């Protein structure tokens, strides 16, 4: 993002920046990278890892070298897989941190550009703008109503005014303690008003913030409701498993005196009951999902926001720059009913009346414009307002900024000593009419002109001016302004918006457009986008309504016009009180409260302020409405995949735990030792992370229904599905084992039963991949991870049965070919049983939601 600098400041050259960056290093306080060793330590502290190591130690102590080494090999495989997934998660989070790193606008080589704040060096010229955080310590060179919030460093809540050295007041006129810092800005402080230019004096650890950074504590994000819910489930199951295992060890040891074997049985039972994959799912899925969303231009600042995305029922969006391209061009003007159409340049505008209107609009804009509207005024009026002003009219004396209370902006320009000051004002037509004191007839003429321009979807701005002598008033309302006319700007609708609005409707999301523009302009743009615009709610109406009345009105209104940021906050509160789950977009300093109040705040990344980005849960990197919709639907898919993985994990642990416990209870030959369970974990772990997270999307998943806000991750239907599928799997496993025990030796029956357990596991994986559809939908294009895992698992399974060394270690003997075929048949029948159970449960839940082919 680069443009010509509009002042005499040239800034550093590229070679100077390179040299200083090499000398001082990047402008960062500390590195936040996690080392792989920390990930490894986290893995080692996991209960499952400790249980596997304990089992391996027992085998080695007993002299069972082959069993012990094989179990250690499986432990290494499990750790390697966990480290791979942990590394993948860390890389995704690191990529998100890079995208979310702060930026700064600087002047280098005479040009204005936006760079990463980490690239700032001493001597850089930084542009200070309202809503931005100061990226480094700097000395002020220019200031226009510049005020900063320095509470991060000083604890003082009141904004502090800053001055350029040439305009710094006398020391006695400054508040106590500010005489030395009135021309300095500090890293981390916030520009709350005005603008300026400053020269960087210190970066990174050499800033005032860097010197005290060791005293600052990084905020630790609280666990989300979903994480707390799953943590409780894991804790209950872990405690239950330990109690049952201890009881099993004691009973088996006292009954038969086989304490070592009893200890191995207890370890196996604990492993079978511990759903260690659930916390992994809650870590990996949101992180990788957030990385995928960032590729779709939606940056996730808080991973917990992904939970809420699937529940959004109302999306409140800005118009300018979100629904429209934010690429404004002045196309029409009106003066007392008379029309003028403008081309790309001002060539041909010879009428003094029209030329004065354009010149005044440019003079009423910032000399260094960043707003697309002000850029459009400058472009049409010339490279800068000074080009059309008298030669002596070159100094900007005072700026009266736009405020929600008075939607107008005034700039006061100085000429010769004897000449009066020129006052140029632009703003909302209603505000200009009030400032100019128009008569009712003049106001009616203005309204007619506005309706004509607004009906074409144009943004309408009124312009006024006057000459002034004497001391400047405290408020722009005290100038005796003269109304000059209206200028209309075209801001075309983004091409993909109507389709995105249609997708919102299909996904049960209502879109409400909230804008500060005139009602007629808002209605026209809303209709182009496909938003119902029969009713329009005005800001004055919002201000006058009670909360319950506002909530009732919002149920049938999708367009809100002339809305201030504080009124946005009231709209969000009313919708929340009415039971809606709200996503809100915003870009300005005053939008931060509404962004924080919404369930999901979506800040604009391209044009948004630092304050808005910090308040939002998501940052829209391209400010495109279509990206918001894609992000919401991706959030739903992430949630759906997490739920499918949890169904699989919880249901699969039922047959594993059952076949670890029932043989002991009924005196059958043991089936599952720690080694066999470790083998099953080598299937479950990659299945729940690789297969489910990489599931390809078909059309129906892209149209995933909205999840109601109060609905838990594991609702009644899901719990029933888990219990039914787990019970079906256990029933098939027990039936198969009893059948094989009647026909085969113990080692052959154990091998055949283990084959059934693995196939039951794989069948459950394919069924859970598509919890609302038939299992063959899991084979949609791009979903190869589950198939690859299944092929590898079957090859490994056959190796443990038919390779003598492995078969002896697993206590297996190869079953006859007919019984091998029967084992595979049991697995296929179990998959059919899962599908029947899934179909019945879905139909019992709601007849219209039955599983579809």
Structural commentary:
Pfam families: Cation_ATPase_C, Cation_ATPase_N, E1-E2_ATPase, Hydrolase. Keywords: ATP-binding, Copper, Copper transport, Hydrolase, Ion transport, Membrane, Metal-binding, Nucleotide-binding, Translocase, Transmembrane, Transmembrane helix, Transport. The chain crosses the membrane at residues 43-62, 68-87, 230-251, 263-285, 645-665, 671-692, 713-739, 751-770, 782-805, 817-834. With 853 residues, this protein is α+β, with helices and mostly antiparallel strands. The protein folds into 4 domains: 1-220, Distorted Sandwich (Calcium-transporting ATPase, cytoplasmic transduction domain A); 223-297 and 630-701 and 709-849, Calcium-transporting ATPase, transmembrane domain (Up-down Bundle); 300-325 and 494-623, HAD superfamily/HAD-like (Rossmann fold); 329-490, Calcium-transporting ATPase, cytoplasmic domain N (3-Layer(aba) Sandwich). The protein is 50% helix and 15% strand. It has 29 helices and 23 strands. Strands 1, 2, 3, 4, 5, 6, 7 and 8 form an 8-stranded antiparallel beta sheet that branches. An 8-stranded mixed beta sheet has the order 9-23-22-21-10-18-20-19, with helices on both faces. The protein has a 7-stranded antiparallel beta sheet with strand order 12-11-17-16-15-14-13, with helices on both faces. Helix 22 packs parallel to helix 25, helix 23 packs antiparallel against helix 27 and helix 26 (746-769) runs antiparallel to helix 27 (785-802). It is elongated and about 115 Å long. It starts with a strand and ends in an 8-residue tail after the last helix. Mean pLDDT is 80; it is low at 1-7, 214-221, 383-391 and 847-853.
